[in-house]
Amino acid sequence: MLNTIYRLVKPRNFEIEFEEIDLNDDVVIVRPSFLSICNADQRYYQGKRAPEVLKKKLPMALIHEAVGEVVYDSREEFDVGQKVVMIPNTPFEKDSVIAENYLRSSKFRASGFDGFMQDNVAMRRDRLIELPDNIDLRVGAFIEIISVSYHTVQRFLKFSHRRKDSIAIWGDGNLAFLVSIILKHELPDVKLYIMGIHDDKMAGFVFAEDTFHVNEIPENMTFDHAFECVGGQGCEMADNQIIDYIRPEGSIALMGVSENRVPLNTRMVLEKGLKIFGSSRSGYEDFKNTVEFLSQNDKAAQLIANLIDSVIDVRSVEDMNRAFESDIKKAGGKTIMKWNV
Amino acid sequence: MVYGVILAGGIGSRMGSVEKPKQFINIGGKPIIIHTVEKFMMISRFEKIIVLCPEDWIEYTDEIISKYIKNREKIVVLKGGDTRNETLMNAVKYIDEKGVLDDETVIVTHDAVRPFVTTRILKDNIESMDFCDACDTVVAATDTIVESFDGQTISQIPDRKFLYQGQTPQTFKAKKLWELYEALTKAEKDILTDAAKIFAIKGQKVHLVSGETYNIKITYPYDITVAEALIKNEI
């Protein structure tokens, strides 16, 4: 089938291209329905990645957060019309120790190969998870970032010591919000402290014990563990603040992506005996557990739905540009594209 | 119920010296008609996909569909008629013979030689049937259209902003189309080569659906070159 793909060819420029999909291959064809724009997409769209990276990766279809509907399955295992979430991480080997999202051989949609901005997407059947009817598809669109939060929280529970009375989260964006919700679900009695820079955004963390501007953190502030959900230029300050304030033997989860190397106060890391671990992306099991989490926790799902900033009807390339430009200007939350192209 | 109707009735008289009707020519390593049928297979609302082709090519069409498409239960190959509209009526008659033709039966009719049709265009066609009985897929005209009655001099140059180029799909309430067509005289039938025109001439509203410039009709050998270039992303 001649599939239409909407690829970013250079910053702010999408072009229509075609690619043949062999329907007799062992693939499931999914028609995307709701797509969610991530900061990683914006870095490509705005040309904020290094020139050599852009040269190597473009043209490429963006978006790695999306839900859709099965329209064809050569093996007829998935019902036509079944709502599914598409997993962007695509492993090519199995390892009994290393998770699929950390295998260097794995490829990731909208990074190593085309993302979901396509008329139809040919998916490997092990990269699809059926969605129950009670999941809002607009929320379903960004299950990927929820699953990344879920994945990190599970790793944290595995790596960290047993005292978990208080946890601080640096960042007041979407990732910080999602991590907080999942932490509160896993550890209902934990005291969460949010360290951010936007008072209006921090006000949305209604389940937190307290929120502080990063320049006004009380000197006597301390906590057992921390999550850094800042990324970019702010990483250095956030990571070093965490190292300063955290109690000894605490665990620090690094989640924010930085294009630059970040100098850390390693002397204090050593003195306090801290555990710092990185987390990135997520895999099949994380998606599966996240779908279950959303389906069984109405209240959490409702809070997460509040992250939706706008849903933009996309019927043309011009609409795609409109959605990305609107996403740049948004105060916060997620921009969802209703895929009618 | 909604039926996909793929019109492969042409014998490719404009294709020059090629031996096969144009819908059977390969682009991207596969016959054009297969690409088109595959696009229709992505639309779950189609009860059946009816492919109409010249009588002499029925066996061939059936064979290539079986060769390229594994799950082909939905696809039916029928004989086309002498004209485009007669071909279309054969599809309507087929639905009628199955005893399922009613006022709400919809046929989405499409040229076999337009394989670049998108899911959005097909869906917009189907969804327009919620509020109208006929629709036509169009794109705004980019060339100035010149009208000449004698082929020698200009009669008039219509204002381009009101002009569109017709593509397919064209979608109709099948029963209504049949009734309107049967009410035409032989002379009218000869003139009305376009099914949407049957509705328009009888004062029925025909809704416009936005097409895409790349939803090209592969008519001339040059179009094959364009289509191949589109697939290889050389344009």
TrEMBL record, chain A:
PANTHER family: D-GULOSIDE 3-DEHYDROGENASE, NAD-DEPENDENT ALCOHOL DEHYDROGENASE
Gene3D superfamilies: Medium-chain alcohol dehydrogenases, catalytic domain, NAD(P)-binding Rossmann-like Domain
EC number of the protein: 1.1.1.405
Binding site for Zn(2+): 38, 64-65, 144
Domain of life: Bacteria
Enzyme class: oxidoreductase
Record InterPro entries: ADH-like_C (IPR013149), ADH-like_N (IPR013154), GroES-like_sf (IPR011032), NAD(P)-bd_dom_sf (IPR036291), TarJ (IPR034710)
Domain Alcohol dehydrogenase-like C-terminal: 218-295
Alcohol dehydrogenase-like N-terminal domain location: 25-133
Function: Catalyzes the NADPH dependent reduction of D-ribulose 5-phosphate to D-ribitol 5-phosphate.
Catalytic activity: D-ribitol 5-phosphate + NADP(+) = D-ribulose 5-phosphate + NADPH + H(+)
Protein known as: Ribulose-5-phosphate reductase
Species this protein is from: Lentihominibacter hominis
Keywords: Metal-binding, NADP, Oxidoreductase, Zinc
Family according to the record: Belongs to the zinc-containing alcohol dehydrogenase family.
Cofactor: Zn(2+)
GO MF: ribitol-5-phosphate 2-dehydrogenase [NAD(P)+] activity; zinc ion binding
Automatic annotation (TrEMBL), chain B:
E.C. no: 2.7.7.40
Residues the UniProt record annotates as site (Positions ribitol 5-phosphate for the nucleophilic attack): 160, 217
Cross-referenced CDD domains: CDP-ME_synthetase
Binding site for CTP: 7-10, 81-87
Superkingdom, taxonomy of origin: Bacteria
Reaction equation(s) it catalyzes: D-ribitol 5-phosphate + CTP + H(+) = CDP-L-ribitol + diphosphate
Classification via InterPro entries: IspD/TarI, IspD/TarI_cytidylyltransf_bact, ISPD_synthase_CS, Nucleotide-diphossugar_trans, TarI
GO biological process: one example: teichoic acid biosynthetic process
Key words of the record: Cell wall biogenesis/degradation, Nucleotidyltransferase, Teichoic acid biosynthesis, Transferase
Annotated site location: Transition state stabilizer: 14, 22
UniProt GO MF annotations: 2-C-methyl-D-erythritol 4-phosphate cytidylyltransferase activity; D-ribitol-5-phosphate cytidylyltransferase activity
PANTHER family on file: 2-C-METHYL-D-ERYTHRITOL 4-PHOSPHATE CYTIDYLYLTRANSFERASE, CHLOROPLASTIC (PTHR32125), RIBITOL-5-PHOSPHATE CYTIDYLYLTRANSFERASE (PTHR32125:SF8)
Recorded family membership: Belongs to the IspD/TarI cytidylyltransferase family. TarI subfamily.
Cross-referenced HAMAP family: TarI (MF_02068)
Primary role: Catalyzes the transfer of the cytidylyl group of CTP to D-ribitol 5-phosphate.
Name by which UniProt lists this protein: Ribitol-5-phosphate cytidylyltransferase
